[in-house]
Amino acid sequence: MKIIKITSLGCPSCIIMNGILDEVSKDYKIDVLEYDYDFDDIEKFNVGKTLPVLIFINDDKEIARLIGEQSKEKIIEIIGD
Known about the structure:
Helices cover about 30% and strands about 30% of the residues. With about 80 residues, it is of the alpha+beta class.
C-alpha cells in the first residue's frame, strides 16, 4: 500500500498531518508520495481546494480518500492491521 499526499507549504492542517504521516509510515512500512498543490501537476488526482488530501492506493487502485486534517486512528483504520 502507498499513500499519495497532496499538500501545500502554507497549509496549517498539512503541517499537522506531516507528523502523523511520518509516524504511520514508519510504524506500518507505508510509502508516502508527496505532491505540492502549488507546484506539482495534481489535476490527475481530481483534488478540490481543501487540503491535505490523502489517497490510499493498493494494487494500483484507489481504495480510500481522506480530505482535510485527520486523526492517526482514522488513517490506521484504512490501512488495517
